[in-house]
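Researcher: Go.
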Amino acid sequence: MKVKITIIILLSLISSQLFAQELLPFVENYNKSDYKGDNQIWNVAQGNDDAMYFANNYYLLRYDGVKWEKYTLPNKTIIRSILVDGDRIYSGSYKEFGYWYRKKGKMLYVSLSDKTKVFEDSDNEEIWKIFKFKGKIYFQSFNGIFLYDGKAIKKEKFSFLISYCFVVDDQLLVASVENGIYKMNNSTFEKIQRWSILENNVIHAIGKFQNKTYIFTKKNGVYIDDKGVLSTWKNPLNTILKTANINAAAFIKNNKLVIGTASKGVYLFDLKTNSYKNINRNNVLMNNSILSMGLDKENDLWLGLDNGIAHVEVNSPISIFYDNSGVLGSVYSVATIDKGYLMASNHGIFKLEGNQFSIVPNTEGQAWNISKINNKYLIGHNEGTFVYEKGLFYKLSAVHGGWNVAKSSINNSYLQATYSGVIIYNDIDDLNQKKSIKGLVKPIKYVAQNRKNEIWAADNNRGLYRILYNDAYETTAIENVTQRSKISNDFGVKIFEFRNEILFLINKSWYTYNSITNQLEKDKLFNSNFKNISNIATIDENHFIVLQSGLLYHIYANANKFVWKVIQEKYYSGKIINDNLKIFKNKESYLLNLDDGFISLQLKQEKKQNTNIKIEAFSEDSLIHNKSRINYNSELKIHVISGKFGAAKPNLFYKTTNTSRFIPIKEGLIVLNNLSSGDHSVTIYGNDGLNYTTISNFQFIVAKPWYFSFWMISLYLIVISTILYLYYKWNKIRYVQKLEFRDEELKHQNKILEMELKAQNKLNIQEYEKHILELELQTKSSEVAGKSLSIAKQSEMIERIQGILDSESDFNKLKSDIKKAIKINAVNKHEWETFENNLNQIHNEFIVKLAKKYPNLTSKDIKLCIYLKMNLSSKEIAPMMNISFRGVELQRYRLRKKLNLNQEENLSKFLLNI
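Model: Structure:
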């Protein structure tokens, strides 16, 4: 498809200027939530302790780069002015002036005016300025001055209203509001007649530069006295200043003039180039009203605003392009042009030339990358690729999404990664002669080439591909190298070229390609030096940028050694665009894109100056000196104060007694918790990019916990001694009691033994009696058995005789006589009763059990049970029960029924078991 080229002449077609913008010094703003004070900052000064001091209405503010402190006067009046002299911070307020000094980490105040009673009750004086002149401290109000020589105070009142006093060329000048300017001659004040044009002007500053005296009026701009001739400043800026209301002005390093205004911020004027920059609320300031100004030892500027404080790094090599309006959007790439800059943002392509900032027409939308090829700029855009050359823009290609451009290592061709593959530009003089790699339709973000007909391409999402193609630019193979190398997490692969070698950053580890094994292998050099980095961007052959743990580092490669220089986080905090870190080298500086503009950094590694730091340690809000003791389980805050607030602020690290690695010190603060008791030390280190050097050391002792203190140990000893004593007493009492108890026990045992002997004797007697009873029982049993046998024999004899007699019927008389004899020999009634009683006594227990278990048994049944238990046969039982043999059998049958016995059970055995 033939690409239609639209040529745009920017100067004629860009009709609307968006707004004036420019590169500015970095500005760090502090608001009330930072310093916890009031709105207005009336005065600024840096103390000899390197801390910054501010007159902030009812507060004296102190900031050492780590911690903000605020203090109030005893009479709670507004502090309007401060001056640093030695270790003293002089301050002035309403009918009050004195000085502050620091002791034990706190600022203490000494009143000079209250001691000497210099103010009358009718006075309505307020000290608006303090300055030093010829060894004396001057406290100036609008009506007079108070001279303090270190011992006494002298009051000098003017007959006219003044604005401020100024020391110029060792002369004291007094600016009257209505009568012009006076100079002090000995102890009198003489009017400078040649400056009469300044009458009825409020003078806010007088300074000298190159033998010219500059006088800054509030509403009438700037006047210059050149060789005794006073005239207005012939500069276009003066017209602006007349409407801006000058509040403060000062000449600073590098031939610069700083002018603070009441309504238009601050102007930085370059006296060499007659150019200026305006820092205001439209770009970086919080407030347009500048009430005061001060310089620190780095020659950077501190602004006291109507609401807040601003630190302007006017002496820093770092400059920033800001866009707080939101018109620019997030910048994905930036490049320098002859008179300005090009920016590719998510809103389009923008051009900054001079102070004119504008969008290039018809380039709205996401722009990704700007690459300079000779004198041409190749710009990758969501809608295609644009070219900027000699002030002209035109569209080169309609292929969407030019993410990145890389130069081939084998020739002068360039490769462009796009949404749909790779484009190769073989002729840099004719960029229209481009070739697309056929057969590759993937969103490629990074490309590189170091062999002919081979391209390395990283997918926008995941995967690293080795693309082989023929001379017709047709793909012959597309290999997913990460899959082949069994790298599972291959999301967001980055390609980095270093000294003609291609390296791959995959999941924070570095790989190179082994062409023999066709596998990715871990690179030892880069993994040992740059492990766990998340992004990298090339500056030139020996310089590149890495992003690690949210911090940017400038790396200088010296042979196989790498010099690290951390870029202070404040310059880009929260402004890095993830996975889109782009660098553009511009002579001895380089540009880095941010999400609201870009930053310009110096390429040259600065020589490290000797770092002098001060350590202030606080525990429970009390200052802790070196080798002091702190309470157990208390927090220790160590302030590492360098006295530097700008680009010269050193990068410091520390180690503690219990750590082996170097830990970066963030914002100058080290916080230690959960410290064990004993000796501890914190060592502060500087780093030159290669080596760590010891700068300072702070030692302290953590006290033992309260339960191990001297008094507690003494208490423990007392308690233990008391316990041991009580234990001894208790043991002694227990021993005595034990002896008494043993005696009692012996007595008791004797009694028991005696009782046991008695019981044993009684038992023996009982046993004896039992034995006698058993003998008697046996005797009775024998008698019963004998009687039973006798009865049985007699009964048998009688039955036999009766049988004989019955069989001899012929002998009647003999029969009669024998029957009489039998009756005589029969058992008498008494003998039978005795037999039954003896039988019942012997078997009494058996009779009771039997009667209880079988209550339906008759006395006759029980008698039969006794005979059966005695193992007597039916034949033996019959005469004893005076019944026949069959009668006994019948009686046994009835008994079995009553006892619920079946036929298989033996009656005698059953009775024996009862």
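Model: The first strand starts at residue 8 and ends at 9.
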